[in-house]
Amino acid sequence: MSKQKLPRKTKKQKERAQKILNELYTYYPNPECELDHRNPFELLIATILSAQCTDVRVNKVTPELFELYPTPELMKDAPIEDLEELVRTTGFFRNKAKSLKETSTILAEEFDGKVPQNMDDLLKLRGAARKTANVVLGNAFGINEGVVVDTHVKRFSNRFGLTKHKSNTDKIERDLMALFPQENWTDLSHLMIHHGRGPCKARISSAPDHPLCEEYGINCECQKMRDKEKKS
């Protein structure tokens, strides 16, 4: 997507985006991935497991999983029943176990047991959609191919008026890529997620003139709150 033509953004829009980015860095100076991992393979597997599951839960599951099956070669030969039991608490465990086994097989047989460092090859892996690929590229290899868009990033982007798209993750990602410098794309996702899990939760302050973010000392110009103020 980064090689495709992105939406045109005005200088004013980009300047505002930069101010928001700077402020986020002020409050979250060391943004990083919250999935525990020691290498690209572990990050890939953890990210696949994180679908419809919290990072906290995944981090409780992966230590035993990686102790038993630390490489693609070992994981591809793991009994599917064992994988299912190990990842059961992450939800959708049967599909996830199949994804882990099939992905490990592809890595072992087609990529010499190594996680590929490009979007096209990552998308060949079962359970690895663009979001997963962006996580792996950005955090394992330092490659800013795109912006990870999860529920927190969606909410943040809409409240801050960074996109007009409510649910289309591809279009939201393109808007963010067009607004923010490429070297910050990986950090940007972490920053928005940190803010979304903290002051910018889905349920916001009931008082229109007192956004929850301001309770944390962050003047975020929340679009949703500003809209409420106009109606009140």
Please characterize this protein's 3D structure.
The structure is a single chain. The protein is mainly α and 232 residues long. The chain folds into 2 domains: 11-31 and 147-231, Orthogonal Bundle (Endonuclease Iii, domain 2); 40-140, Hypothetical protein, domain 2 (Endonuclease III, domain 1, Orthogonal Bundle), CATH 1.10.340. It has 13 helices and no strands. The protein has helices spanning 11-27, 40-49, 55-68, 72-76, 80-87, 93-110, 119-122, 130-140, 151-159, 169-179, 185-197, 212-215, 223-231. The longest helix is centred in the middle third of the chain and has 18 residues, at 93-110. Mean pLDDT is 90; it is low at 206-210.
Layout of SSEs?
Layout: H1 11-27, H2 40-49, H3 55-68, H4 72-76, H5 80-87, H6 93-110, H7 119-122, H8 130-140, H9 151-159, H10 169-179, H11 185-197, H12 212-215, H13 223-231
Helix pairs in contact: 2-8, 5-6, 9-11
Characteristic terms for this protein:
single chain; 232 residues; mainly alpha; Endonuclease Iii, domain 2; Endonuclease III, domain 1
Return the CATH topology of the largest domain: Endonuclease Iii, domain 2
Query: How much of the residues is beta strand, in percent?
Result: under 5%
CATH A-level architecture of the largest domain: Orthogonal Bundle
Please give the number of β-strands.
0
Q: Based on Cα principal axes, name the global outline.
A: globular
Average pLDDT value? 90
Supply the number of structural domains.
2
